[in-house]
Amino acid sequence: MDKGRDKNRLIRTQAVPEEPVRVGNLSLYPISRELRIHPPRIPAAFVWRRPEAIVVRRPGEVEQVLRIRDETRWAQFAIVLAVLTLFWRVWRRVRWR
Questions:
Q1: Domain count of the chain?
Q2: What gap in Å lies between CA 38 and CA 35, rounded to an integer?
Q3: Cα-flanking dihedrals φ and ψ of residue 11, to 5°?
Q4: Taking the model in full, what pTM does it have?
Q5: What pLDDT, on a 0 to 100 scale, did the predictor assign at position 70?
Q6: What are the backbone dihedrals phi and psi of residue 32, each rounded to the nearest 5 degrees, phi first?
Q7: By the 8 A CB rule, do 89 and 96 touch?
Q8: Residue 95 included in any domain
Q9: Which residues 6+ apart lie within 8 Å of 27 measured at CB?
Q10: Cα(5)–Cα(3) distance, rounded to whole angstroms?
């Protein structure tokens, strides 16, 4: 894909490696997923990052990738679904009166 064209897209998502953290002989590399919404001709963008994985490296061993399950995202989805269901039920009740 053309990199210049990719930069001009309204909505982009990409994996973003963060700075490594060293703990003893371990190197931990956090990886986050970034959602960027950048409307054309507006000098600002909405950027949302969420954790995705941690890459664990030990000297002389195979690197290990630990996926992170984002429980907050599931909670947000459940709240939005509950609110939409509530609005739908109220709308149906008001409409049929």
A1: 1
A2: 10
A3: -125, 125
A4: 0.60
A5: 78
A6: -120, 160
A7: no
A8: no
A9: 20, 21, 56, 57, 58
A10: 5
pLDDT of residue 21: 93
Q: Is residue 75 part of a domain?
A: no
Domain membership of residue 97 (yes or no) is no
Look over the chain and give the mean of its residue pLDDT values, rounded to a whole number. Answer: 86
Q: Is residue 74 part of a domain?
A: no
CA dist 12 to 7, 44, 51, 63, 83, Å? 8, 14, 16, 28, 28
Residue 47: domain span? 3-68
Of 30, 75, 74, nearest to 54 by C-alpha is: 30
How far apart CA 41 and CA 1 sit, in angstroms, is 23
Per cent of the chain over pLDDT 70 is: 91
Both tokens assigned to 66 = 């630990």
Q: How far is the C-alpha of 82 from the C-alpha of 88, rounded, in Å?
A: 10
Distance CA 57, CA 63 (A): 5
Q: What single string gives the DSSP state of each residue in 31-83? A: EEEEEEE--TT-S--EEEEEEEEEEEE-TTS--EEEE---HHHHHHHHHHHHH
